[in-house]
Amino acid sequence: MLSRKELQRYSRQIMLPQVGEVGQQKLSAARVMVVGLGGLGSPVALYLAAAGVGELHLVDGDKVEVSNLQRQILYKVNHREKPKAEVAARQLTAANPEIRVHAHPHMANQNWLRKRVAEVDLLLDCTDNLETRYSINQVCREVGRPVVMASVRGFSGQLISFDFSTSRSPCYACLFPPRQQREPLNCAGAGVIGPALGVIGSMQALEALKLLLGLPVASLARLHLFEAETLELRPLQVQGNNDCPVCGQNQRS
Ligand SMILES: [Zn+2]
């Protein structure tokens, strides 16, 4: 049962047939991990907290720097030198004291993810680190948790989700085999336009809410490419790869 306070706070989404009181209860019961609290993680975490996702785990080992403020909308000048995960947790709690927010002020390595991902219902990959992305892909598949992944470089963004809790989903390594990948430039090296992160981060939050509500999810195994210069959004179906080192049939004994 939702409290009177919750009915009031979430009234504008509860009145939607896609959400309703039942949907709001699902969101309140949900446990979600956000890895990376930068340009994508900022809108993602703000929207999930505002929507009343009951438990948020925020994972980031970085501290706030002045050069983050151009795009990482969770932070203000007085947060400089403070751990992002802890600042973000305080900001979200201030926005919505009805939810539980846990800060994990360290990087998400594979061992840590193996211990913690089973304790949440869904994960959002908001990192700009390829090694972490492969670890998240691997662990979410092992544990059977859905994941919404995104990245933005310059004016170009991409978004894709995998639901490893059901059937035979392809995975990120099917799409981008690890041995063919070189570490791409991160935002520090390549530059990025802030609002493109807002667009893609908002789409990530949308897809996460739809997954939690049990609504159809357009980005499931479909890579969405967004060009901020033309506003073009292009979906590409992803096929499973039999030789995938993470999920491929040919790799199984
Ligand atoms: Zn795969």
Give an account of the 3D structure:
The protein has 253 residues and is α/β, with parallel strands linked by helices. The chain has one domain: Rossmann fold (3-Layer(aba) Sandwich). The chain is 36% helix and 19% strand. The chain is built from ten helices and eight strands. It has helices spanning 4-9, 11-14, 20-29, 41-51, 84-95, 110-116, 130-143, 172-175, 187-190, 194-213; strands spanning 31-35, 55-59, 100-104, 122-125, 146-153, 156-163, 222-227, 232-237. The chain has an eight-stranded mixed beta sheet with strand order 3-2-1-4-5-6-7-8, sandwiched between helices. α4 packs parallel to α5. It is globular, with a radius of gyration of 18 Å. The termini are far apart. Bound molecules: zinc ion. Zinc ion binds at residues 170-171, 173-174, 241, 244, 246-248. Belongs to the HesA/MoeB/ThiF family.
First and last CA, distance: 47 Å
CATH homologous superfamily annotation: NAD(P)-binding Rossmann-like Domain
According to DSSP, the number of beta strands is 8
User: Which second-level CATH architecture applies?
Assistant: 3-Layer(aba) Sandwich
Small molecules in complex: zinc ion
CATH-defined topology: Rossmann fold
Rg, alpha carbons: 18 Å
Gross morphology is globular
Report the β-strand fraction as a percent range: 15-25%
The biggest beta sheet, please?
8 strands, mixed
Number of domains: 1
Helix content: 25-40%
The CATH first-level class comes to Alpha Beta
